[in-house]
Automatic annotation (TrEMBL):
Keywords: 2Fe-2S, Dioxygenase, Iron, Iron-sulfur, Metal-binding, Oxidoreductase. This is Putative Dioxygenase, ferredoxin subunit, and Flavodoxin (Modular protein). It comes from Nitrospira defluvii. Residues 6-102 form the Rieske domain. The keyword Secreted does not apply. Gene3D superfamilies: 3.40.50.360, Rieske [2Fe-2S] iron-sulphur domain.
Amino acid sequence: MPDATWTEIGSVDELKQRPLQQIVCGQTKLALSYKDGRFAAISGVCNHIGGPLGEGRLEGDYVVCPWHYWKFHHRTGQGEPGYEGDQVATYAVKVEDGRVFVDLTPVTKRQKLPKQSHPLARPIVRADGPVRVLGLATTAMTADQPRFSASDSLLEEALAYAHEHLQLDTQLIKLRDLSFRACEGFYSKAAEACTWPCSITQMDPTDQMDRVYEAVVHWADVILVSTPIRWGGASSLYYKMVERMNCIQNQETIANRHLLKNKVAAFIIMGGQDNVQGVAGQLMTFFAEVGCQFPQFPFIAHSRGWSAEDMERNNSEVQNSRELREGAQALVGRAAEMARLMVEGQLAMHPLARGGRKAHQLDSEPTG
Ligand code: FES
């Protein structure tokens, strides 16, 4: 008979089928490994933000967390070389009569190394000053082979007008100048696996999406997005960006945090092809879901329609259109005015129900 402190978790034949598995014994989650003919157990809860280690994989002697890939030795519980001080609890395991037993009193305890928080994680405090307009250009082109872009040119027109005539602060980010990874769908592993700041941003210092996050979350009052129409949708870089901005929306879901409070979004949509309405719907849906406000008439657009195949004429039409240039100026003017009202607290704040999916109030960040 086993000692009273041992808990039976299954048969050897069954448990040795998998090199790593999550075992739950009451309140205790274990990552049980089977390697070189031996069982070992460490805590099944990752030191990072609690990912299920037993659902990861065994890579050599290390258990790799499935959420953000931290590694812990499958026997000692220690982090990988250089991070040995980051350690998850270990448990004694024994085999008797073809059955596997675990002592749920840890042999070694969990230890965490102090961590530096990412700069983007700081509180969101709006610095004093005039309304700030961020232009996000999403069209793709070879950086050292520049050409005319209808969407870029109207965005630049709007920013110049905001700076020179409205005396606002402006900033332009061209997504094509940034090197950033595609969203890897951490949210699909578990809601908590999608973090703010973005998991990729925290893990990969070479990823330049942090510049967009910094500008959108910590700097801008107005977010002015320009896009071409490509096959009836926005540009591929636009979608790549907003997929990475899932972490902003996800904070509403998992932490009741509204990171884009008091922000106004507006759009410039230019296409030789048609489907302005579809693209506008895509853009507005996303920015509505991250809690942005829209001015009246929140986008300007131009399209010559489905049968217009001579794109060079589209460019010359936009270049020569005073109406579109004035439209871009008026758009940024409307958006900035809406932002001013919000920044000055002249618009009533209402409880923010999440897109009709779950009616609860969000705790917003202080905006200073
Ligand atoms: S690496 Fe395990 S939870 Fe993030």
